[in-house]
Amino acid sequence: MTSEDRPRVVVLGAGPGGYAAAFQAADLGMDVTLVDDAPQPGGVCLYRGCIPSKALLHVASLIQETRASSEWGVSFGEPKLDLPKLRDWKQGVVDKLTRGLGQIARGRHVTYMQGRGYFEGPNRLRVRSDGEISEVEFDYAIVATGSLSAIPQVLRLDSPRVMDSEAALELEDVPETLLIVGGGYIGLELGTVYSALGSQVTVVEMTNGLLPGADRDLVEPLQRRLKREFRDIFLNTRVSALEEVEGAIRATFQGEGEPDNHDFSRVLIAVGRTPNTQRLGLENTQVRLDERGFIRVDGARRTDEPSIFAIGDVTGEPMLAHKATHEGRVAAEAIAGMPVASEPAGIPAVVFTDPEVAWCGLTEAQAIDRGIDVAVSRFPWAASGRATTMGTREGLTKLVIEPSTERVLGIGITGHGAGELMGEAVMAIEMGVRVSDLHLAVHAHPTLAETLMEAASLYFGHSPHYLGRQTRG
Amino acid sequence: MSQDFALPDLGEGIDEADILTVLVHEGDTIAVDQPLVTIETEKATIDVPSGIAGRVTKVHVAPGQTVRPGQPLIAVETAPVAAASAPDPAPPSSSGTRDVEPPPPEPVSGPDTAATPSPEVAQQPDPAPAAATPQPEVAPVEETAAELTLERPREEAPPAPPQPAPAAASAEAPAPEGMPVFAAPSVRQFARQIGVDIREVRGSGPGGRIDEEDVKRHARSHQAAPPSAATQAVAPASAPDEGAARSQSAPSLPDFAQFGPVDREPLSRFRRTVARNMTTSWEQIPYVTLFQTADITELEDLRRRYRERAREAGGNLTISVVLLKIVAAALKANPHFNSSLDVETNELILKRYYDIGMAVDTERGLAVPVIRGVDDKNIIELAVEMAGIAERARENKLTLEEMRGATFTISNLGSLGTGHFTPLVNWPEVAILGVGRAEQTPVWGDGQWTPRLQLPLSLSIDHRVIDGADGARFLNWIADAIREPLIVAMEG
Parallel, antiparallel, or unpaired: how do β-strands A356-361 and A407-415 relate? Predict the structure, then answer.
């Protein structure tokens, strides 16, 4: 195939969606250019999201375990923090992974352009890089520009003490007190990190619960735990103003919660993320946004402009790397003319707190919302041998079941390693597993995965390790 | 002791398959799970593994043959063949050609799904007593089937129609909105690939789970059931007007006079013939129409240059005439487009003559005179012949003979300003080319816009014979030949 008859594909944004799309397109024989303003592919996820936060959470979990172990007869004393070294280690993880992606891109003959892209029309992208401007003509483009931290106008304050998640991951210092605005997964994960490192953390959430969107029974063990770890958790409360005072930020609160002291060493704003659609030149194309500001796409990730596709955060919730990766592959295959669509039965969500909270497929709350009749089976980890040996009894494994078919529609798990347990959950939901399949499949003992089988057995009223009988359907 | 091994149940959706290759010979020693034959079903090619071990004493089937589950494939000597496994003499006969069509001319039952099921059983060319009844040894397969039926109570209908059992107990309606589809990702992908909306598929698995077989069955039942047959599916098999249902039993008309004054005009015989032919076409042929645009800028220059020469010979060098020549070359290069489908014998009749019909608009309506042996005539000759035919068509002097036996048809509506359209195939042909009006269109190339004369082409095909991709290739062939007329000489 000569280069002339290979479709020219430009991927704008090199996060987990963008680089997956670019690599897939290259593997399908297309002439691919990947554009991003970072020096290597990786995007928010690798540079300032999933990966650095998980590196820090790993450290946090280690610290927490050493503290817990004193109850088991092993004491380590207070940890000594070497912040520059910790930052280097985290940065090392990021560099290693992003460099690896750069190599993979070169190995696949993907042209990587560092710069900012701007659509001049449905077949032309202008890339500005260090004042230099180049023009890229394309047959197809994939928009994968992701999302940005949303900072409400009233909380905008030009002070290094007010951080978004990206700044918080830089780990400038360990502030004595940290106010986190937003009780979603970003706020709770970073709160866990800073709390383990020694900050006194206050979380303010404007709705009536942490982790909006997750089932309450899954959040409950985490909330109980965080109430002990954090100084304060204020629900139904909002921060209405911030102001810089001597050596601190003074916050004004509205609603149910009111702290003793309104001054905080640092403030983290983690109220959500907003799709990154501005200043991309989309107005020079037929690409249209929906009423919430996401790019409108069909199942094959096609926008209203036939030559342009879009994937990942910029196209809608949930804003998760693995969703973007899947969509990226679909978009590349759609460009290749394959009959594809992104229609997963479930997208796993994992909150890497301690304990972890994870779910996939239909939540109980969604079922109630949509009027779908479901039965729920819950297996508490207090009855799990494995959890007990690990000294972690805070946990719950729960199945959302459609009674007429006995099909498992959703799985939620709270507990140590819940994220890893999503592997089986995703397969169960995608494959259309029935609760009896889960019940009849032999699971290793003693493991945490066993709790999935136990929850299934419980649906039929007979878990060997738990007496509480569940009513069916 | 010799026993037959029969074709196992292939899943509910599939009740017959064609033998592509026979992988064992008489005298071979085979093991359990060793592939015996490669069969082709609706959508997939499958190797059928043996359920028994032993020495093959007889091969009952040959490539090209249609077989049904339960029909014996081979006879096997099952006595312990411990030591001396006979050296296989590999008879030269059986291993058939890989080419799928034309199938060997043996009379095979294979009732086409569209036709009424014929009761005859496959006639075996070999005299083995097997063909009559299934062997007792086949039991394992049937038991499995029986178990399946036990698990899910199907309606206790008499074993009459070979129709897929409609709606098993639990799986009632298609998946409701907001509920994920009850099928594995690979099954969902398969449905997408063959163009089935998985939400419409009924699952036969436990709890109503959809598997690949369900998707295939859905695809087939929809392919086999044109709207008119849908009513039949609802009524049990004994419906009185089964046969009549296929030939256009039009619903009765309302009384238009209640809405306003009307006149009634009798249909001419001519019109009735067109109506009948078009109805046959529409009822018989599953249609696909593909659109393409051909750049005729250069060709138009050529045409203008040679127009005078054609006029001197008494002809009119039109784009239609040039297309006639190009299409004949395209048909030679793509013989399936110059064929007819024999559903009785499951054969494709490939015609080695190239008589092309030209749809012309006359005062009385559509007429399709046929230009014979187009491949043997040069363009000037065709121009002269066309001029004569057009003349006779206008004067209603075309004979019936002149309008018979085309192998392919071209319909040109360009003079009326039409662009793309969806022509109906002139059954029993399998394809028709529609030609629209050429338009000057700005085309981007080499960094600038240039005016190019673009000709809209529409190709309707009989999807039973020709796949969309093949249709697209055929259209590309024509478009390329229009751009590079030398192709006609090189490949046509």
Answer: antiparallel
User: Is the Cβ pair B183, A432 closer than 8 Å?
Assistant: yes
Percent of chain B past pLDDT 70, that is, above it, reads 71
Facing A372 at nearest CB: one of B178, B185, B195 = B178
ipTM of the complex: 0.74
Contacts of B188 in chain A (CB under 8 A): 343
Tell me whether residues B209 and A407 touch, CB distance under 8 A. yes
Contacts of B212 in chain A (CB under 8 A): none
SS3 per-residue string spanning chain A: CCHHHCCEEEEECCCHHHHHHHHHHHHCCCEEEEEECCCCCCHHHHHHCHHHHHHHHHHHHHHHHHHHHHHHCCCCCCCCCCHHHHHHHHHHHHHHHHHHHHHHHHHCCCEEEECEEEEEECCEEEEEECCEEEEEECCEEEECCCEEECCCHHHCCCCCCEECHHHHHHCCCCCCEEEEECCCHHHHHHHHHHHHHCCEEEEECCCCCCCCCCCHHHHHHHHHHHHHHCCEEECCEEEEEEEEECCEEEEEEEECCCCCCCEECEEEECCCEEECCCCCCHHHCCCCECCCCCECCCCCCECCCCCEEECHHHHCCCCCHHHHHHHHHHHHHHHCCCCCCCCCCCCCEEECCCCEEEEEECCHHHHHHHCCCCEEEEEEHHHCHHHHHCCCCCCEEEEEEECCCCEEEEEEEEECCHHHHHHHHHHHHHCCCEHHHHHHCCCCCCCCCHHHHHHHHHHCCCECCECCCCCCC
Contacts 24+ apart (CB under 8 A), A104-107: A104/A23, A105/A19, A105/A22, A105/A23, A105/A34, A105/A41
Element (DSSP H or E) covering residue B222: helix B212-224
Q: Is any Cβ of chain B less than 8 angstroms from the Cβ of A67? A: no
B188, B190, B202, B211: best mutation site toward chain A, by most A Cβ within 10 Å?
B188
Q: Residue A293 contacts by C-beta under 8 Å, 6 or more apart in sequence?
A: A274, A275, A277
* Helix, coil or strand: residue B142: helix
Cross-chain CB nearest to B182 (options A339, A344, A432): A432
Q: Is the dihedral of CA B460, B464, B466, B471 positive or negative?
A: positive
Q: Using one digit for the tens of pLDDT, what is the confidence trace for A153-200?
A: 999 999 999 999 999 999 999 999 999 999 999 999 999 999 999 999
Rg over CA atoms, chain B: 28
CA distance B179 to chain A (A): 8
Q: Which residues in chain A have Cβ-Cβ distances shorter than 8 Å to B207?
A: 404-407, 434
CA distances from B286 to A20, A145, B194, B427, B481 (A): 39, 44, 15, 11, 28
A362 touches B at CB < 8 Å: yes
**Digit-coded pLDDT (tens) for B79-109:** 544 444 444 444 444 333 343 344 444 444 4
- Amino acid B14: pLDDT: 66
Identify which of A30, A35, A32 has the alpha carbon closest to the alpha carbon of residue A13: A35
CB contact under 8 A, B182 and A429: no
Q: Which tens digits make up the pLDDT trace of A197-237?
A: 999 999 999 999 999 999 999 999 999 999 999 999 999 99
Interchain contact A361–B (C-beta under 8 A) = yes
Tell me which chain B residues have a C-beta less than 8 angstroms from the C-beta of A430.
Answer: 184-185
pLDDT digits (tens, 9 = 90+) for A314-345: 999 999 999 999 999 999 999 999 989 999 99
- Convert the pLDDT of each residue in B261-292 to its tens digit: 888 888 877 788 888 888 889 988 999 999 99
Task: List phi, psi (to 5°) of A200.
Answer: -90, 115
Q: What CA dihedral angle connects B178, B184, B189 and B195, to 10 degrees?
A: -60
